Every structure is written in C-alpha cells, then in structure tokens.
Amino acid sequence: MDLKTFIRDIDNFPKEGVVFKDITPLLANAQAMQYTLDKLLEMVGDVPIDKVVGMESRGFFFAPLLAQKLNAGFVPVRKPNKLPAAKTSQTYDLEYGTDTLEIHSDAILAGEKILVHDDVLATGGTAKATCDLIKRLGGEIVQCNFLIELDFLNGRHKLGDIPMRALLNY
C-alpha cells in the first residue's frame, strides 16, 4: 500500500511558507490505518517496551495503539497546564521563540524501556525535548518512531545517537 497517497499537502499552514503534511485522509481509511500501525510495529521489532510516549497532539493517534499492541503503557507528553498531577517540564527552542512540554513526574520509572512516537519529525525540537524529559525521569529510550520524517529539516541530528525510524520520508 502506498501510504503517501493518503497524505495531502496543505500550503501555507499553519503559517505562510509551510507545507503541512495532513494525515487525516490516512486516519479516515481503516485499511490505511491498520497498515500504518502494522508497519510502525515492524519498525520496533522484538525489543521489549515498557511505555510508549506520544507527543501532543498528533502523536496521540498511533502511540496508544502501539502501546496496546506492545503490551505497554501509554504516556502523553503535553503542552503546559494540560496534565493534572505533578509534572516535569522541558523548555526548548523554536525557530522564533521557545515552547514547553510536560510529562507527569511519575509516568516513567528508572530503567523502563521507552518507545517515543510522533506523527512527523520536522526540526526535531519536540522530539529532543521529549527525549530529554524521559531521560530526566530515568527512562531508557529504545527508539524514536515517526510516521513521517521531513529529511530536508535535518531533525534527526538533534536526536544524537538515539535510534530513530520513520515510515515515510519527504
């Protein structure tokens, strides 16, 4: 199945000059969703996973499904003031400014094997901030797993030596 036929480009979204990779056509097709989930799972292989961490908001589409299939827990990483219990925060640089992500402080135990999932790896800021949060809590990142990688933005370089896989590359 050619998943790229289910990804549409939206010009100038969310701002002028950006070509947004819209995955909602993929999500609207049951066969494409199942195929995507199967392929994302194949990328993980046989490595035991304790928790799957998904980033707000589009990482929430497949991360819980991956967690269920891997018999692992799901942990959301969210924008500020969205999580109700004690949190650990990580601020990171954007092209023009900063942003912050939060995780529940008790969501990951020291030594747990973690799969990080998001829909798109672009500049790598969100993925790196998420990995930094996981490391601060003592988690061991097994892999960063993405539906799409935008190669021209070189986001994988921010992840250093963390294993990274993407299903589709643009």
From TrEMBL:
Extract the CDD domains matched here.
PRTases_typeI
Q: Which residues form the Phosphoribosyltransferase domain?
A: 49-148
Q: What enzyme class is recorded for this protein?
A: transferase
Identify the metabolic or biological route this protein is part of.
Purine metabolism; AMP biosynthesis via salvage pathway; AMP from adenine: step 1/1
Biological process terms in GO annotation: adenine salvage; AMP salvage; purine ribonucleoside salvage
Quote the cellular component terms of the Gene Ontology held in the record.
cytoplasm
- In which domain of life is the source organism classified? Bacteria
- Kindly state which keywords UniProt assigns to this record, in alphabetical order: Cytoplasm, Glycosyltransferase, Purine salvage, Transferase
What EC number(s) has UniProt assigned to this enzyme? 2.4.2.7
Pfam families given in the database record: Pribosyltran
List the molecular function annotations (GO) for this entry.
Answer: adenine binding; adenine phosphoribosyltransferase activity; AMP binding
Q: Does the keyword ATP-binding apply?
A: no
Could you tell me what reaction this enzyme catalyses?
AMP + diphosphate = 5-phospho-alpha-D-ribose 1-diphosphate + adenine
Where is this chain's protein located in or outside the cell? Cytoplasm
Task performed by this protein = Catalyzes a salvage reaction resulting in the formation of AMP, that is energically less costly than de novo synthesis.
Fill in the subunit field for this protein. Homodimer.
Q: What's the family?
A: Belongs to the purine/pyrimidine phosphoribosyltransferase family.
Query: What PANTHER family does the entry give?
Result: ADENINE PHOSPHORIBOSYLTRANSFERASE
- Per its record, how is this protein called by name? Adenine phosphoribosyltransferase
- Origin organism is Zobellia amurskyensis
Q: Which gene encodes it?
A: apt
